[in-house]
Specification:
Layout: H1 20-40, E1 46-54, E2 63-68, H2 107-127, H3 138-165, H4 167-179, H5 201-223, H6 228-266, H7 279-295, H8 303-311, E3 332-339, E4 342-349, H9 354-379, E5 404-405, E6 411-412, H10 414-420, H11 428-437, E7 468-470
Antiparallel strand pairs: 1-2, 1-7, 3-4, 5-6
Helix pairs in contact: 1-3, 1-4, 2-3, 2-4, 3-4, 3-6, 5-6, 5-7, 5-9, 6-9
Bound molecules: fe (ii) ion (2 copies).
Length: 471
C-alpha cells in the first residue's frame, strides 16, 4: 500500500493496476491533463527544474529531489496510509467505522465538496501561468514551479476520488475541472478569489500566504471526513501544502526585509525610486489578499455546512483536539453580524456557525504572519508596522458584504469609500509600479533589487544553485 508504483503510467499507491476499468478511465483523462498543463500551465520554457517529487507517503523520506523536465513530472495518486480501525470523530455517525465507500445518501454532497476543492487546484496554476517571465531569482522560479506541479498533483488527487467513487458523474466532473478556467468569461472557476489574476510576485507571495492558507484550512476540515479515501487524500496534500505556506511566508518576509534595509540605508520611507516596495504598497496588497481570502470561508452562518458536519462529511480544524461532544447540537457561538447598520455579533447555534469557527482559526494563523513581518521591521529599528485589516473591510461575502468599512473597522458611506479606497487597496498606479519592478533575474546567485535573498536554499542546496535550466 505504501510504495508508489513508478513502473505504472500513473504512479500511485492505490493499487490502480488491480482495477483495470478505473486505470483505463484515468489513463484516458491523463492526456487531457497534459494538454491542459501545456496550454494553461507555466508559460516559461524550461529544460528542467530542481523539483521535489512525492515517492512515498510515510513520515520519513517521502520526497525525492532532482532536476526533471516539467512535463515529465510524475503526477501521481497518493493517499496517506490508512489508520487501523479509523472511526468517525464527529456528527451523527460518531464512533462508527469510517466509510470506505460513498454512502448513497451523501453522494451528491460529497461530490460537490470534492469538486469545489478540486477546482481551486488547477485554478492557481492558471493564475500563476505567466510569473516565470518575471522571476526575481532562479530559487524563486523553482519554488513557483514546485507549487505549480503540486497543485497539478492535487487536481489528480481529487480526480482520482471522482473517478474511483462517483461513476459517470464523477468522470464528467473531472472533465469540467479542465474545462473551467481562471478568469474565463463563459466558464470561470467556482470561487471568486481563484478568478483574480496573480500578475506579479508580490501578489504571488501574498496569494501563497493568504489564499493557499485558506486551502490549508479547507483541507484540514476534509481530512476529518468520515469518507476515508477523502480524508487520507487530504492528509497527504497537507504535507505538500506546507511548502506552499513556506513560499508565501518567507516571500513576504524577504520583501519586507529588503524594504526595511533600503529604508534604513537611505533614511527614507520613500523607497520606490530606489527600486524597493514602499511599506504602504505592501500593506495594500496584504489588505486585498487577506480580504478576498476571508470571503472564501463563506457566510458567517450556513445550514449546509451544519448538515455536512452532522453527516460527518466535513469536520472542524483539529477536530479530535476539541474538548467537546463533537455533536454540537446544544452549543452556541457568537458570529459577526450587522445589527441595525452597526458591526456587531449575534449568537447562533454552534453548528450553523461552523464557517465562523474555521475563519477564526485562519485569522489567528494570519496574525502570526503579521507578527513575523513586524519583527523584521522592529529588528531593523523601524517604528512602522503592518496590520490585518478589519474583517468588515472589502468583503463581498457574508454579513459585511453590503457595507463598506475602513481597515480600522469604521463604517463608511459609498461616497467615502470611493474617495478613500485608493489609500487601502492597490491602485492602477501601484500595480503599474509593482509591474515595473518585475524584471526577470535568471542568473545563478543573483536576485532582484526589491527582494532579499532567502536564508537557505532548497534541500540543503545553496542559494546560487542551478535550480532551473531555461530552454
Ligand atoms: Fe493545493
Ligand atoms: Fe497549495
Amino acid at each position: 500500500m505504501t510504495t508508489p508504483d513508478y513502473a505504472e503510467k500513473i504512479p500511485n499507491n492505490v493499487s490502480l493496476a488491480g482495477d483495470r476499468r478505473l486505470q483505463r478511465a484515468l489513463e484516458s483523462w491523463q492526456p487531457n491533463f497534459l494538454t491542459w498543463w501545456e496550454t494553461m500551465g507555466p508559460a516559461l520554457p524550461t529544460q528542467d527544474v530542481y523539483l521535489r517529487t512525492a515517492v512515498n507517503v510515510g513520515r520519513e523520506g517521502w520526497a525525492q529531489f532532482g532536476h526533471v523536465p516539467m512535463r515529465d513530472y510524475r503526477w501521481g495518486i497518493f493517499l496517506a496510509e490508512p489508520g487501523p480501525d479509523r472511526r468517525i470523530a464527529f456528527g451523527r455517525h460518531k464512533g462508527e467505522p469510517a466509510w470506505q465507500q460513498v454512502p448513497g445518501e451523501y453522494r451528491a454532497e460529497l461530490r460537490r465538496l470534492i469538486v469545489i476543492q478540486g477546482d481551486t487546484e488547477p485554478a492557481s496554476v492558471e493564475q500563476q501561468r505567466n510569473l516565470g517571465a518575471t522571476a526575481p531569482s532562479l530559487y524563486d522560479l523553482r519554488n513557483l514551479f514546485q507549487v505549480n506541479v503540486e497543485e497539478g498533483r492535487h487536481l489528480w488527487a481529487m480526480v482520482y476520488l471522482l473517478h474511483a467513487h462517483f461513476g459517470r458523474e464523477g468522470r464528467e466532473e473531472a472533465e469540467e475541472l479542465l474545462h473551467r478556467n481562471s478568469g474565463s468569461a463563459d466558464a470561470p472557476r467556482i470561487l471568486g478569489a481563484f478568478n483574480e489574476e496573480t500578475p506579479d510576485w508580490l501578489s504571488f507571495f501574498m496569494f501563497t500566504y493568504f489564499t493557499d492558507r485558506d486551502g490549508k484550512y479547507q483541507l484540514g476540515t476534509l481530512k476529518e471526513s468520515a469518507f476515508d479515501p477523502l480524508s487520507r487524500t487530504c492528509e497527504f496534500m497537507l504535507k505538500e501544502e506546507a511548502h506552499h505556506m513556506f513560499v508565501g511566508t518567507t516571500g513576504v518576509d524577504r520583501v519586507v526585509e529588503r524594504t526595511a534595509q533600503v529604508m534604513v540605508e537611505n533614511d527614507t520611507d520613500d523607497v520606490a525610486a530606489l527600486g524597493a516596495i514602499p511599506l504602504p504598497v505592501i500593506q495594500k496588497y496584504l489588505n486585498f489578499h487577506y480580504s478576498v481570502s476571508l470571503d472564501l470561508f463563506g457566510g458567517e452562518t450556513s445550514t449546509n455546512v451544519a448538515n455536512y458536519y452532522t453527516a460527518g462529511l466535513k469536520g472542524r480544524w483539529m477536530e479530535e483536539r476539541r474538548k467537546d461532544d463533537h455533536l454540537l447540537d446544544s452549543d452556541s457561538i457568537m458570529v459577526d453580524a450587522l445589527l441595525e447598520g452597526e458591526i456587531a455579533q449575534t449568537e447562533v447555534s454552534a453548528l450553523t456557525g461552523l464557517n465562523t469557527d474555521l475563519r477564526r482559526q485562519y485569522i489567528a494563523d494570519c496574525e502570526g504572519g503579521v507578527k513575523r513581518w513586524n519583527r523584521i521591521l522592529d529588528g531593523a529599528g523601524l517604528p512602522h508596522r503592518l496590520a490585518l485589516p478589519h474583517q468588515a473591510f472589502n468583503r463581498k461575502v457574508g454579513a459585511f458584504a453590503g457595507i463598506e468599512a475602513s481597515p480600522g473597522g469604521e463604517i463608511l458611506t459609498a461616497a467615502e469609500w470611493e474617495q478613500r479606497k485608493s489609500q487601502w487597496l492597490p491602485t492602477g498606479t501601484d500595480k503599474t509600479f509593482i509591474r515595473s519592478l518585475m524584471r526577470p533575474v535568471y542568473e545563478r546567485g543573483k536576485i532582484a533589487a526589491w527582494l532579499a535573498p532567502p536564508r537557505n536554499g532548497i534541500n540543503g542546496q545553496p542559494f546560487d544553485y542551478d535550480y532551473v535550466h531555461l530552454a
